[in-house]
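Residues pack. Consider this:
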Amino acid sequence: MNFTFRNMRISGLLVVVPENESRYDDELDNYNFPVANSRKLKNVIGIDRHRLVSGDTCASDLALFGLRHLIDRGDLLPDEIDGLILVTETPDYFMPPTSNVIQGKLGLAENVWCMDINQGCAGFAVGLIQGFMMLQQEAINRVVLVNADTLTRTCSPRDRNAFPLLGDAASIAILEPSPTPQTIHANLQMDGTQHEKIMIPAGGFRLPRTPATANVELASDGNYRGQDHYHMDGIAVLNFVQHQIPPLIEALLSAAKTLKEDVDWFMFHQPNRFMLEKLADKLGVPRDKLPNDIVEHYGNASSVTVPTAIAHTLGTGLTENTYTMCLCGFGVGLTCSSLLLTMGPLQFCELIDFPSSQVDN
């Protein structure tokens, strides 16, 4: 499905990462593989360290910390928030919506449109599409898009296929009308026939959690995990990305009548360095225009990897410059989505640490 939005923009971007950092080299004894084998994997796919929440820290804690940071600094006025979108795979509760929890704790107006979206790695692009659709309403002038996940809490620490790659983080993007004319192009695809390729089998009503689902066992791939844990079929996801993303991007650029050479940055979801290098080559774009170093610095925080790549790579430079960007996310669902838009100059673009002791009970 294709989308076109006119005269809208991202005006600010903040990323929040836990200050708690764990290094891959310190985790090697947790895995059921020879240390030499694990060290080789580190160099091949690009893993080094990741950021993890502590204790019972939830998605809303990361989000509230970032939102209050912006409010206290005067970069975000609560009375000007008309819509609040939270994209997460790790909500605080089954019910109520975590976006309502955030609204209540911030004391936002009762007519703020709050919405939770259950999406993963494509969630920044999906959230932007939803936010821009909100802005098409006359009553809505500013939408706050929050992406937040604490995926490391869902993963077995003895699963080398997943745990060292994952991280926790939140991002806050401010969406509003653009003072200058511009067009945003977007597209979206979903393949629910492959929904089991990335999933947590237990925990919902299809398979409620029990002592049996919590039992950690040796899996066929040599890792230890239970049905309560995050699981990804890496080969299937790699094939999905290599086959689906290039035509998705080609279709986006064709609809926008834009050449690859005219795109300054390809800010894509970051599962690992190896996959992104292969994808850049398949797309025929320079690797240095498609950043791939987020997992080795912070870990894969699902839908937050795209804003993290933007803030980490460009930082305050995006408050002074304007770039044509192609954003793309792909993963759980299986879902993929991309946008072509102009970003900058932003009011703010930064990455801050979340203190380990900061939990909003």
